[in-house]
Amino acid sequence: MASRDEIVAFLDEYLNVPAYPDKSSNGLQVEGKEEVERVAFAVDTTLRTIERAVKGKADMLVVHHGMIWGGLNYITGIHYKRLKALIENGLNLYVAHLPLDAHTEVGNNVGLLHLLDLEPKGPFGEYKGLSIGFYGEFEEPQPIEKVAQIMAEKLDTTVRTYEFGEREIKTVGAVSGAGAFALEEAYRKGIDLLITGEFSHADYLTAIDLPQSVLVAGHYKTETPGVKALMEVVKTKLGVNVFFIDEPTGL
Ligand SMILES: [Zn+2]
Fold first, then answer.
1. Distance between CA atoms of 81 and 86, rounded to whole angstroms?
2. Per-domain residue ranges of the chain
3. 102-128 b/e (C-beta count within 10 Å ≥ 16 → b)
4. How confident is the model over 129-139, as pLDDT tens digits?
5. Ligand 1 centre and the CA of 140: distance in Å?
6. Which pLDDT score is estimated for 83?
7. Rg, C-alpha atoms of the chain
8. Kind of pairing between the strands at 35-36 and 241-244
């Protein structure tokens, strides 16, 4: 058991929440019960994840994608439904978007490198003046197929690769989710492979012309490592019960 305020203060500090210029309102988005015994973790805020958190007797739901992005003007439609479900059940909603991508210990991007047994060598993936990703380096260059096989196995998903670079893979840059904005930076910095979650038609055209090799593993799947790693920290440091709600989007 811990108090809501204690958990919020711990997370705000551990994740360095105030440092991030983010469209997401990070931190405690919706206030619920004061005492917290069980904390649920999920990638997204949907009615389904809220329901599953309530069913699992959680007092707090910690997510990567919250429900407030750059303000909330009308409490109607899905906003009303989600808010109602949260408030009626006294469920606290805590959100960590960019702070959870960028964190040096439990971040999604460090987590993606760890899946390949790589340690972060330096920052990568500059977004609004702040690097939210990392790059790592294999000791020996690897064929892209091998990297893809490991990622697919570890994330339990299918991955797509676009082998546009001319070299085998030595350096890997990771930007989870919608990380294709880092294509040009990857090329400029000589990163052999960009690992990200989403890849659009327009991104393809950029990648082929740079040229830059890319591995796409899904927005949802690339943002599970951080949520799961943060869950372990909360369990250990705050002594509360935790559980993960898996709601893959397939995207
Ligand atoms: Zn995301």
1. 9
2. 2-96, 102-219
3. bbeebbbbbbbbbbbebebeebbbebe
4. 999 999 999 99
5. 31
6. 98
7. 18
8. unpaired
Please report the pLDDT score of residue 21 as a whole number: 86
Q: How far is the CA of 232 from the centre of ligand 1 (A)?
A: 20
Place of tokens 């890997």: 172
What per-residue confidence (pLDDT) applies to 85?
A: 98
Give the pLDDT score at 177.
98
pLDDT at 23: 94
**Secondary structure of residue 9 in the 3-state scheme:** helix
Q: Which residues neighbour ligand 1 (ion) by CB within 5 Å?
A: 177
Fold of domain 102-219 = 3.40.1390
pTM: 0.96
Among residues 135, 24, 2, 112, the alpha carbon closest in space to that of 69 is found at 24
How far, in Å, from the CA of 108 to the mean position of ligand 1? 10
- Please give the structure tokens belonging to residue 156: 């339990």
User: Do 2-96 and 102-219 fold alike per CATH?
Assistant: yes
CA distance 177 to 102: 12
Give every residue of the chain whose pLDDT is below 50, as ranges. none
**Please, what sign has the CA dihedral across residues 136, 133, 237, 55?**
negative
CATH class for domain 2-96? alpha beta
Distance 135 CA to ligand 1 centre (A): 19
The token pair at 139 is 């000791």
pLDDT of residue 153: 98
